[in-house]
Amino acid sequence: MVNETTQQRDITRLCIQCALLLLQHGAESMLVEQLSSRLGVALGMDAVESSISANAIVLTTIMQGHCLTSTRKNVDRGINMHVVTEVQRVVIMAEHKLLDVAGVAKRFSHIKPLRYPRWLMVTIVALSCGCFSRLNGGGWDAFLVTLIASGMAMYVRQVLTARHLNPLINFCITAFVATSASGLLMRVPALEHSSSVAMAASVLLLVPGFPLINAVADMFKGHVNTGLARWTMASLLTLSTCIGVVTAMVIWGLHGW
């Protein structure tokens, strides 16, 4: 009986660690619920029940009529699909009996978020925003303005993120930098005839698309509370971006998009 209780406690910890890793790195709530349940069943539990909110996870494992419940606080660690796919891989391996309890615990301890080099992120984001300006009717001069402005903004965003600044303040400052850079570059004689789409394209890196998609997916699949929390956070990020853009336009006397 003691061994069974110890085993159930270990499996419960692994299940809630699985759920926490997924929720912290941007997985939708249904995926969090399903993978934690599948892991528990694969490791020998009769059933796994969980309650997911934006700030915490409550998870219960059931084995031979004995229930064990654990609660963990959720701290957002940013969207990282590498962690999500690694957790999925561990669960699938456990289902195919390739990993036992100790093997799953070892795999989870080795999962680390994949971080791309800062210069690569800045380059890719700048190019993508520049290409968007071209696709929306801007010329090569608008492409250049967007490329420089969005690159500067992405660099500032990453520096502020590394210093663990509040995301709302981060987005506001980044939007201010992007709008200021694009607006002032368009006053340079060689670039003064650039399309105004450059100013809009330079802040595209701040569109919270992933949180909004997850918010809709959560509400559609029944996790209304988590969905509303994510929708609210995405809306606040959008509002912060707008404040940064408007502030830059007022300070520098820039005209609308």
UniProtKB/TrEMBL annotation:
One of its GO terms (molecular function) is transmembrane transporter activity. The chain crosses the membrane at residues 116-136, 142-160, 167-185, 197-216, 228-254. Its main location: membrane. GO terms for cellular component: plasma membrane. One of its GO terms (biological process) is succinate transport. The keyword Cell membrane applies. Residues 13-251 form the Threonine/serine exporter-like N-terminal domain. It is a multi-pass membrane protein. The keyword Nucleotidyltransferase does not apply. InterPro entries: ThrE-like_N, ThrE_Dicarb/AminoAcid_Exp. Keywords: Cell membrane, Membrane, Transmembrane, Transmembrane helix. It is found in: Cell membrane. The transporter is composed of YjjB and YjjP. Belongs to the ThrE exporter (TC 2.A.79) family. This is Threonine/serine exporter-like N-terminal domain-containing protein.
